[in-house]
Structures are given as C-alpha cells and as structure tokens.
Amino acid sequence: MDYRKSNAPSNTVTRDMMQMSQDTGNIYETVKIISKRSNQISVEMKHDLEKKLQEFASYNDNLEEVFENREQIEISRYYEKLPKATLIATQEYLEDKVYFKNPAKDKNNF
C-alpha cells in the first residue's frame, strides 16, 4: 500500500484493543504485527526521502557556506506532515490490508 495515499489520521487516536485483537486472539500478537508493519513503512519512507534528497546533495568541500534549497525544504516538510508509520500500519491492520501468519499456530493445527 502506498503510504502517501493512506487515510490514516495524522494524530493519535484512542482504539479499543480488545476489538482490534479479535483476529489474532492475543493483544500482544496484534501489537507485534502492527509494529513489524510500522517498521516496514518507516524504512520505505526513509528510503524514499533519502532518494529525493540525494538529488540536491552537494559534493563540494566548502564548510563555510551552507546551501539551503527551497525545494529540499519543501520535500522535508511534506514528509514531516505525513502520518507516522505506526498510525499508517494501524489503519492498514484495521482495514484488513495486512497479511500475517503465525507459524507456531499453523504447526499446532496439523
């Protein structure tokens, strides 16, 4: 899922953890699933930001002058205004857009 098109809230929302953990039956497993997806989203966002900012990188060894590019600042502001990775991952989980499986539970079913 594209994190830029997410309808996740940009601020913290109180959630009913018992309702969220109905799929797994365990609150801690639900939190772990959301945290792993959050880490994936965070790495993807960081990679995209670094790739976009790399275009503006200056390879001069001039320590006296700090060059600030308006476009670079706008890109940084855009990424700062995006919802946090945890909120995006939680929204994806609530919308059933996250695939997960527990090998330990699958092993017990056989």
Features:
110 residues; mainly alpha; 5 helices; 0% strand
Give a written overview of the molecule.
By secondary structure, the chain is mainly α. The protein has one domain (22-109). It has five helices and no strands. The longest helix has 28 residues, at 27-54. It is elongated.
Count of alpha and pi helical runs: 5
Number of strands: 0
Indicate the mean pLDDT.
82
Rg (CA only): 19 Å
The structure class reads mainly alpha
What oligomerization state is this entry in? single chain
Overall 3D form: elongated
In angstroms, what separates the terminal alpha carbons? 32 Å
Give the low-pLDDT segments: none
Instruction: Please indicate the percent range of residues in DSSP E strands (runs of 2 or more).
Output: under 5%
For the biggest sheet, the summary is: none
Number of domains: 1
Brief summary:
With 110 residues, the chain is mainly α. The chain is 55% helix and 0% strand. It has one domain.
Please specify the SSE layout and strand pairing.
Blueprint (H helix, E strand, L loop, with lengths): L16 H4 L6 H28 L15 H12 L3 H10 L8 H7 L1
